[in-house]
Every structure is written in structure tokens, then in C-alpha cells.
Amino acid sequence: MKIIHARDYDHMSRQAANIISAQVILKPNSVLGLATGASPIGTYRQLIEWYRKGDLDFGQVRTVNLDEYVGLAPEDEQSYACFMRRNFFDSVNIYPSNTYIPYGLNPNAEDECSRYDAVIRALGGIDLQLLGLGPNGHIGFNEPADFFTKGTHMVSLSEATIQANKRFFEKEEDVPRFAYTMGICDIMQAERVVMVVSGAAKAPVVRDAFFGPVTPRVPASILQLHKDFTLVADEEALSAC
């Protein structure tokens, strides 16, 4: 495990973008695993800036997203498909046909999860996976549990996750209660994993995940065992370590 100490959110975002840009330059047809939420937005903005300057080309890149809310159409403003278009895809030269996100309107969870795992396999796996860190230690929507879940699955979102995400919705009742998410095995099989974490509110979970025991009760702790994991965190996020 490698830890990059960043000064603040902007510095954290730039450091993570450096790693991703190097991956794309060295392997133009990379498969990038992408995350949503507030943490990676700065990283996407930096990548967009470098693309607009002519430093990056996403024309051959393929992407797979970690998760999607069950029940939301890709066109829904609160869907993660829409988030990715708004914050990244629409601003770079990535082909829509090369972007993959779980389909939240598939009512058959077993079918959708099998389909998405097959997509990842068909792409040859993930070269670099970008992650954020949930307040309870979740990665993707892999919530604290008694065991690590292997493949893509439908998860019931914890109350902590619902509370953390309600700021994106008009009212708490609008927050979906279920999501499709890549499993821990999908994430761990990525060649490289980069996590961005910012802010004092995340300090306790950073300590528990990366300076405590490996346990499914803190899902991110499994990353201690990954062969090429980099934590990019600012001073506040590392303040409890």
C-alpha cells in the first residue's frame, strides 16, 4: 500500500489525475474503473483540463462504473449514468459505446449482475480502478457485512449511506434503497487501484480501513491486501492516523 499525502482537495485531485493520465498515456486502450460521488469530481475536472489542452486522448479508453441505483433510468438526473456524462464523459472524446454502467431499470437482479460481470470479463478486466471511500468504509456500494461479496450484486443501502447521499436528492424519501454494485472481487482483480479521500469527516474511517484489521465490517480494509493500491488523501483525512 502506498499513501500519497496531499495538502487539500485540489492537490489530492491533481495527484490522482496524474496517476490516471499516466495510465492512459502508457496504455491508450486502458480499461478504467470509475467512481461517482463528490470525491472524484476534482480528479475528473483535472483530466478534462488536460484533455482540452491536448495532453490526453480518451479515444481508445473503455470504462466500467462501480455502481448504479436500482430503479433509476440512465436519463434520470440523479442516476450515476447521468453523473458520469455531466462530470466527465460529455467533456472528453470518449465514445459512449465504450462506457459501461449497470442498468438500474433491469428488475431481474440476477440477470443484471451476471450481465455486468460478463462485460468486465469481455473487456479483459480493469487496468486501473478509481475509488472513493464511504463514511462506513464502503467501496462501490459494498456495505459492511459478515463476508466480502465476490461479484456484481444488488445491495440494500445502509442508513449511513442513505444519509450521506440524501443531499443529492430533493428529499430523503427520494433516495433509492437499493443499488447494483461491483463486488469486492471485481475491485481486487483490477491491476491498479487508486482511492481519493478528503476531509476531516473521513479521518476515522481512513484510520480503521488502512491502519486496522482487514474485516468485511470495514469493506475498504481489504485493499490493504491489493498488490498495487495507492491511497491519495489530504491532511485532514489522514489526521487520525
Topology:
Elements: E1 2-6, H1 9-26, E2 31-34, H2 41-52, E3 62-65, E4 67-69, H3 80-87, E5 99-100, H4 109-122, E6 128-131, E7 153-156, H5 159-165, E8 178-181, H6 184-188, E9 192-197, H7 203-210, E10 229-234
Parallel strand pairs: 1-10, 2-3, 2-6, 3-5, 6-9, 9-10
Antiparallel strand pairs: 4-8, 7-8
Helix pairs in contact: 1-2
List keywords for this structure.
Rossmann fold, 10 strands, 241 residues, 7 helices, globular, alpha/beta
Using the coordinates above, name the CATH class.
Alpha Beta
Element-by-element helix/strand order: EHEHEEHEHEEHEHEHE
Helix content: 25-40%
Q: In the CATH hierarchy, what is the architecture at level 2?
A: 3-Layer(aba) Sandwich
User: What separation lies between the terminal Cα atoms?
Assistant: 15 Å
What does this structure look like?
It is a single chain. With 241 residues, the protein is α/β, with parallel strands linked by helices. It has a single domain, classed as Rossmann fold. It has 7 helices and 10 strands. The strands form 2 sheets. Strands 1-10-9-6-2-3-5 form a 7-stranded parallel sheet, with helices on both faces. Helix 1 packs across helix 2. The longest helix is centred in the first third of the chain and has 18 residues, at 9-26. The model has no long low-confidence stretch (mean pLDDT 96).
